[in-house]
Design a protein that fits this description.
The protein is α+β, with helices and mostly antiparallel strands and 176 residues long. It is built from 3 helices and 11 strands, in the order βββββββββββααα.
Length: 176
């Protein structure tokens, strides 16, 4: 596994458990890259869905991927505060082409006041049966939901007070 180069653009590829592409983010600037951690920034990037439809993100975002956790986190900077979208997913890999992970349907949306909602439990159950998620994956994902909730409550990692603002400032230096 390679290491993405800081300041360079990369794509993000999300897959489903069956290997099919789910979603592609066209360009994210690498702000920190190592074997274990990638932090990126993007704003108004093109996103392509599996059916070919495209849309453009509406606000600046900081992305957080870790090789030891079964989730990734997107912090979106909006006028009324920072919103987070957390995807329960496989740990990322970087293959020189893109940051890649398997999306496992479950999501946690976190609001600026740090309240949160677990989303898409019905989609997860449907896909778990359709794609035959192994029991071990189910157990890992449920444990990682608990880890994410602890991080949110403890303001850990990307949920720390200045995390998103600090990395957004770094992102702006690359955009100038």
């Amino acid at each position: 596994m390679g290491v993405p180069i800081e300041g360079e653009p990369v794509q993000i590829h999300s897959f489903k458990h069956n290997g099919h592409i789910h979603r592609v983010w066209d360009e994210t600037t690498v702000l920190k890259g190592s074997q274990n951690l990638v932090i990126g920034g993007n704003d108004r990037t093109i996103v392509t869905e599996s059916d070919g439809r495209t849309w453009v993100t509406r606000e600046p975002a900081i992305t957080y991927f870790h090789s030891q956790h079964w989730f990734n986190i997107i912090g979106m900077l909006r006028e009324d505060g920072i919103y987070y979208y957390c995807n329960l997913s496989s740990p990322f890999i970087y293959d020189g082409e893109a940051i890649k992970y398997i999306d496992y349907d479950l999501d946690i949306k976190v609001f600026p006041d740090m309240t949160f909602h677990l989303l898409d439990e019905d989609e997860y159950e449907r896909h778990r049966k359709e794609m035959n998620y192994p029991d071990v994956i189910d157990q890992i994902l449920k444990a990682n939901v608990d880890t994410l909730i602890q991080w949110i409550r403890q303001r850990k990692g990307p949920f720390a007070a200045d995390f998103i603002d600090t990395w957004y400032e770094r992102y702006l230096t690359y955009r100038r």
